[in-house]
Specification:
By secondary structure, the protein is α+β, with helices and mostly antiparallel strands. The chain has 7 helices and 9 strands, in the order H-H-E-H-H-E-E-H-E-E-E-H-E-E-H-E. A hairpin with a 2-residue loop joins strand 2 and strand 3.
Length: 207
């Protein structure tokens, strides 16, 4: 009987190892958006809280794609997915070494920035990046971006929840700035770079 158990032991160990690996993969997928590969809300929140504990100069930003619904309606969901994938790739490329991006759902993205010293200029760069056309089936798909950001150090309660709320408020204030349905550039990029970092920064780039 003992030789049989000796032969069985590696098989059992291998089976448990395979099970653990598959479980890890499932948990990993739960924290990753299957479309863009960015962290989901849960995974991003965990990472963001770690960064906040280590970096007192951290900031949170929310980005919403303007004109995304029109792309979906006019060109179909495959085109919409292409825009989301491109936005995720550009957001990840824009992030610094210590920054972390995530997708909250739909066309809403989130980033924790470890060092917000150059936040106004970086926001302008991100808005410009997100508005670049996406090529899909030979067509140029264009969206704009409304971005709201808040620095943790300038909030009464320097928590992730408070920063998300402040960034969300800033983003929707930007979305309200339009005339006759025409999206405006508010403020101009050159002006954004000269604005000192304040409690919440807002920039919107027209589609």
């Amino acid at each position: 009987m003992e030789p049989f158990l000796q032969l069985l032991a590696p098989l059992l160990a291998g089976g448990w190892a395979l099970h653990a690996h598959r479980l890890y993969q499932r948990l990993h997928r739960v924290r990753r958006d299957p479309l863009t590969g960015l962290l989901t809300r849960e995974g991003w929140s965990r990472a963001a809280n770690r960064i906040i504990r280590r970096h007192s100069s951290a900031a949170v930003l929310l980005a919403d794609l303007d004109g995304f619904k029109a792309v979906n309606d006019r060109h179909g969901h495959d085109a919409g997915d292409a825009v989301l994938v491109a936005a995720g790739e550009r957001l990840a490329a824009w992030c610094g070494k210590s920054d972390v991006a995530g997708r909250l759902g739909g066309d809403e993205f989130v980033v924790i920035v470890a060092d917000a010293a150059r936040l106004p200029g970086r926001l302008a760069d991100l808005a410009e990046l997100l508005r670049q056309p996406v090529i899909h089936n030979g067509e140029q798909l264009r969206v704009g971006a409304s971005i709201g950001a808040a620095r943790l150090a300038e909030l009464e309660a320097p928590t992730l929840a408070a920063a998300l709320k402040a960034a969300d408020t800033a983003m929707y204030q930007v979305k309200g700035r339009s005339r006759g349905g025409r999206r405006l550039l508010v403020p101009a990029l050159a002006a954004v770079r000269r604005i000192p970092v304040s409690r919440a920064h807002r920039v919107r780039l027209a589609a």
